[in-house]
Amino acid sequence: MILYGASLSPFVRKVLIYCAEKGIAIERKSIGPGDADPDFRRASPFGKIPALIDGDFALADSSAIVTYLEAKHPEPSMTPAAPRERAQAVWLEEFADTILAPAGLVVFFNMFIAPMVGVTPDMAAADKARRETLPPILDYVETELPEDGGPLAGGMVTVADIAIACQIANIAYCGIDLDDGGRRPKLARFHAAWCERPSARELVAGNRAVLAQG
Ligand SMILES: N[C@@H](CCC(=O)N[C@@H](CS)C(=O)NCC(=O)O)C(=O)O
User: Fold this and answer.
1) For the chain, which domains are there?
2) Is the CB of residue 187 less than 8 Å from the CB of residue 138?
3) What pLDDT score does 214 carry?
């Protein structure tokens, strides 16, 4: 199986960490969005990363890929059995991918990616996202995190934890204070714990090294 995409992408990292948590072997081809590689474009018709090739099967989108892999490798399960807990995990993954991600991306893109790809950064947009868009979204994550530091849904690590951790990591790379002066202690602890998790540690260290180079 080949996963296409650069690990600075939180969506690519989500699949990589999921595979590491499950013990699924996966090879990665590090390419950026829009790459012309024909196998990548077969898997991702709109050029987004990540994309997966598994033999003659090609698929885009982190949630679709994880759904495929979870069906193919059901054990150890990352899918809560109880209807409410399963649905809560789906919601939190969806929240990460569609609400947290775009808010964080405005800052991350303008700080790091725009200079890398020769685009003029829109720092006014980044500052506005930092000051106005992100805080209530991060506050929401704080309210959802359990007091005991356990996983978000169903008493087990699910893709919701991984999806949120990956988006939060990119936000933290931008130097945003997750703790917000003591207001979000659970979020700060969640982030620190995920950065040290064996499935994530090397990826996060690699990301930090790349971003430090500029
Ligand atoms: N819903 C998709 C989002 C993937 C996505 O937006 N990836 C970004 C990189 S972080 C991308 O490829 N952007 C290029 C584009 O939107 O054209 C997923 O979960 O995989």
Assistant:
1) 2-72 (3.40.30.10), 83-213 (1.20.1050.10)
2) yes
3) 77
